User: Which sequence fits this backbone?
């Protein structure tokens, strides 16, 4: 019941959000955040052996499919990609834009029909910060870990600092990431200028993002690779 209550609560929290154009790619802070994260992710993928077209990747909380579209652009084969999304309206949006050969699953990712040791990479982007239940976080992390092949990795992007203005989310510090994946080998870097600050400084000038983002303690997110031995 804990998991079912938390999943229902997540859907309700998302339903009452009104973000307007806050995440529009036409906003200077948004495209700079995205490009920064993409550069960091590409650096990590370049360290791996093999070729993207041969790798199998699953995304937890794929939303409207934006990250999976990026993976296609990076060279992943659509038949080797799959996404899992809890919210029906986002799942439908993803289905509209992604290739038919890319498998999409609607529902609870911790219960997804994913074969053990079938994935080279498992991606999550700001999913765990939306889960307020520790046991539900743990169940999802355990499922993700079971999907990975030996030598595979979780690709993790999430924020580490609580947002006092938004009680619907919570930061996931590195100590919690280590608790969730105790057997993993963790490599990480801080990225992303604090979004409220980024919105503010980019009103002055888009170039201000780079200036303020050069200060490490103003970055609120972590891009991490958690490798499975």
Assistant:
């Amino acid at each position: 019941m804990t998991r079912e209550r938390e999943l229902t609560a997540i859907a309700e929290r998302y339903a009452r959000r009104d973000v307007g154009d806050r995440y529009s790619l036409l906003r200077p802070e948004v495209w700079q955040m995205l490009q920064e994260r993409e550069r960091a992710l590409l650096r990590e993928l370049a360290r791996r052996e093999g070729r993207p077209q041969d790798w199998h990747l699953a995304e937890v909380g794929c939303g409207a499919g934006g990250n999976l579209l990026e993976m296609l652009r990076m060279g992943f084969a659509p038949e080797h990609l799959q996404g899992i999304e809890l919210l029906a309206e986002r799942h439908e949006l993803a289905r509209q834009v992604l290739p038919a050969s890319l498998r999409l699953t609607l529902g609870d990712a911790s219960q997804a029909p994913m074969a053990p040791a079938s994935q080279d990479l498992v991606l999550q982007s700001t999913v765990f910060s939306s889960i307020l239940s520790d046991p539900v976080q743990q169940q999802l992390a355990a499922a993700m870990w079971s999907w990975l092949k030996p030598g595979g990795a979780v690709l993790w992007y999430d924020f580490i600092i609580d947002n006092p203005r938004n009680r619907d989310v919570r930061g996931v510090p590195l100590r919690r990431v280590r608790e969730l994946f105790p057997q993993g080998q963790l490599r990480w870097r801080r990225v992303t200028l604090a979004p409220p600050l980024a919105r503010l400084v980019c009103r002055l000038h888009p170039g201000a993002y780079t200036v303020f983002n050069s200060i490490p303690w103003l970055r609120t997110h972590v891009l991490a690779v958690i490798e499975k031995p």
The chain has a mean pLDDT of 95. The beta strands are 57-60, 81-85, 103-106, 119-125, 148-159, 185-193, 219-227.
